[in-house]
TrEMBL record:
Organism: Pandoraea thiooxydans
GO terms for cellular component: plasma membrane
UniProt-annotated location(s): Cell inner membrane
The protein's name in its UniProt record: Lipid A biosynthesis lauroyl acyltransferase
GO biological process, one term: glycolipid biosynthetic process
Taxonomic classification: Bacteria, Pseudomonadati, Pseudomonadota, Betaproteobacteria, Burkholderiales
Amino acid sequence: MVAIGRLTKRIGFAFALGLLRILALMPYGVSARLGSALGTLLYRIPSSRKRIVHTNLRLCFPNRSEQEYERLALANFRHVIRSYVERGIQWFGSRRAIGKLVSVESAIDLSEADPPPTIYMGFHFVAIEAGSMMYSLTNPIASLYTPMSSQLVDQLAKRQRGRFGAEMISRADSARRTLATLKRGKPVMLAADMDHGHRDSLFVPFFGVPACTLTSIARLARASGARVVPFVTEVLPDYQGYKMTIFAALADYPSHDLQDDARRMNAFLEEQVSRMPEQYYWVHRRFKTRPHGEPSVY
């Protein structure tokens, strides 16, 4: 039975891999529309992910009407499923194809010959993958990633995300290696808006809800002397591709107060989510870990 299970997983993986390669050959507008349509279809099916989206939206945007929750949840589902379909071109598309799809607007000089140590602080919007791939086309970068449960998928993701030269660093051994990477002058790209439990985290508000928030960026910046530069990649309307915005480095960050640093990070994220709430990964259980004594919200 174990052998049959492994064979089934390999067949499923081979099918998904072939599908991604086919999607990479399609015009972007076709695959994007296909992803949106698939998201609309899957939204009609009851699922745990759909419940998570609705729970997150109700927590973060209270007092909205049922019609507004439904509209926003559907739009979010379409974007999320579409982002999975667009992995085809992001993971297997050519340099030229990705370069044409992603425009970059930066408040810092990306061509600087000897830039200071830099931590690029990203967030889980649906187009984060596209922006990260675009940056790695022309700039040396190291990127932190969370290993996936499937070894086959994990190896594929690591290989394809690093195919333009990005150095992939697993969160399992990230702290020492990341610090060494920053000290030798290579910028590091990571996202810190995930709930990884109580360790190295603090509870600070996210849209007024206590959220278990990682302090890793502030601690890494303090240890390395790196500047912290936020970036956000958004999906453009009418299937025009993506826009990556690189902001100015955060002033006076980190401070001497991890609580304040975490609060500033969440406040910045709130501003960006408020601009495009349908594009944030509400399918994640952002409030999975609760303060001691509080029940699960999911």
